Automatic annotation (TrEMBL):
Residues 737-748 have a biased composition (Low complexity). The lineage of its organism: Bacteria, Bacillati, Bacillota, Negativicutes, Selenomonadales. InterPro entries: CSD (IPR011129), CSD2 (IPR040476), NA-bd_OB-fold (IPR012340), RNase_B_OB_dom (IPR013223), RNase_II/R (IPR001900), RNase_II/R_CS (IPR022966), RNase_II/RNase_R (IPR004476), RNase_R (IPR011805). GO terms for biological process: mRNA catabolic process. Gene3D superfamilies: Nucleic acid-binding proteins (2.40.50.140). This is Ribonuclease R. It catalyses: Exonucleolytic cleavage in the 3'- to 5'-direction to yield nucleoside 5'-phosphates.
Amino acid sequence: MQLQERVLDFMENQASRPVSEEDIANGLTLNNEELIQLFSVLDDMESRGLIVRNRNDLCGLPSQMNLVVGHLSMNSKGFGFIIPDDPREAEKGDVFIPPTLLNCSMNNDKVIARLNDSSLNGRSREGEVIRILEHANKQIVGTFEKSTSFGFVTPDDKKLTQDVFIHKRNFNGAAIGTKVVVQITRWPKKRQNPEGKIIEVLGKIDDPGIDILSVIHQYELPLDFPEEVKKAAKKIPLTVQEKDYKQRTDRRDLKIITVDGEDAKDLDDGVYAKKLDNGNFFLGVYIADVSHYVRENSPLDLEARKRGTSVYLADRVIPMLPTRLCNGICSLNAGEDRLSMAAEMEIDSNGKIVSYKILPTVIHVYRRLTYDIVNKILVDKDKETIDANADLLPLLNPLLEIRNILKKQRNIRGSIDFNIPEIKVKLDSKGLPIALLKRTGSLGESIIEECMLAANETVAKHMFMKKTPFIYRIHEQPDKEKIDSLNDLLSAFNLHINKDTETDSINPKAIQHVLEKVSGKPEEKIISSVALRTMQQARYCEENFGHFGLAAKYYTHFTSPIRRYPDLIVHRLLTEILPTGKISTARTEQLKKLLPEIALSSSIRERVATDAERDTVDMKKIEYMARFVGDEFSGVISGVTAFGIFVELDNGVEGLVHVSSMVNDYYEYIEKKYALIGRRTNTSYKIGDVVNVILMRADIKERMIDFILKDNGVYNQVNYKSVNNNHKTSKTEKAKAGTAKTGTTKSTNSHKKNTRRHSSGTNNFKKGKRKSTHK
């Protein structure tokens, strides 16, 4: 056992009070060499918040000192929530931090907070920040303004609520109104803003592409690979070498296909299926063996670990691996030999996997298909497409049958499917948005999804049974307070999510049952969206806690190693264990230390990528809508707060109707009814209602859209047109704005008590932007 683990075990199980370094040394009976190590180990543990020293220099565990260690998630209104690092603390919920008790901490800082009694009914935990362990915002992107002797930068990130003060000597040639990157030189103190120096001028706010570039710098996304990584990539051969075929099962005789979107270039999964003589099905899932080329601790590996994932922005992809690998030797391109790690499964008619093999293979993809082609064959029954792919019908028909039985089996056990469309912004050659497109799940996508889910579960179960260190994809129980809040909404529709009376927990079947009841009804989208935000965020973990959303006991990410680092690790671990069925004791101890760090880092990088992707889409949606200022739209109330209602248009764009613009009455917020109700007129605006609105403002700089109600608001059309709309809009464009199919926008709905966004993570079992939002 490592010295750190021994210290933690001693303090948790033997120490009944805060202890000195001498107490720890005596309690552990350390030898001289261990005694020398102890002081540096304790310093490291303190810096990471694993232990806390009090004023008497005694050490204690945060959980035993009424303290919580975690990362601060700020709200633009000035308050925040601490998301605990310790899973046991995380189960108790986030900790609310009022604006007056932040003690100069900023968004994403790692902090220690003291727990206080909650000042608000219904909030379980509240606290104050007492120590900042690690500052997160070393660089900030924003807009520069100046006077003769000083300047300041207003952050683009609205969760950073303080401007950054800039001395004249640190302007670095920045002009008023330019977008800049500022490096923090002094952290904020009481009644003093942070200070910084401008290290890069990105350009004028209105320059083409500056919006996306600002997001890239805001999230510190890499624009290029280091030279060392480029050199390492150039050494990777472009074709499979003769020596690579050894000790691999040859599957080049199988008609393996890939099925992806039209624009996909990094093809990391292929499938093959057939019906067996005993009535069961054979399903082979063949995943690019990236771990063969990206060796542990090599420059390629360390850079991939740092990035964690590929990032899919509105106008570009920032890959996890260099193009030579992700679009070249690792991509399962048709007509070329490729190395793969395979999960070959026999599935019975009830969707049960009766046997399986996990093995390294060499494959030769027979053909590349797209979702459109598969849909034309299986859904549209398009004769021309069927004739052109007649040789694939013996493969596609079994795949369809497998999809149906796997999906049915998942439904029986309680797996939750949120039918929420995803948005894609179509850009022209200059990066300007010209259309908003809705991406809804098709049969072709569903076939691949079920195959990937089956492979992920099979690999996770296999490694769990081996009792070897591993990385799982986990999704924990929803927060009870959020379920109660969701039930408040559901009560308006005579629905309710019941808890298990014995365990006081939620069965995913209960949520599935509610979603099935509202399927196809007007309230389906609203209830699905709120239910999704009720879910915990899926994450990577070295321990297996199951996957609530999938109702799965075992789950991992195995199917996208080109663009997700945890998948690459899973492949590496499989490669290590397959020859003998076990891993050495020394390697096991090494992995026990390494995997928790990788799991946490990968989860953080995933959230960064998700936020960056969402921000770029939101910006382009607002930019697209700016041409329609003054136009009328029909929408649905998607959120209700004390300060107004959020309205979502048919095209997926969401904006705020501020309560101050409602001129016919004074309105009061009735939380349990999710409604604003007029005192005198009793006029009600509740979640799910259809309303007609006028677009008042589409502010790209502030990243917000404002509506007013057509029949309950005052609007100066001339003034707003002159400010917001610099070009004419044709009738055709106007029609498209209201009817173009899109997904949902940035979640600013405050009808949830905890305004920190709680998506349940992203499945990312495929590449590109097609994501199942809870897997």
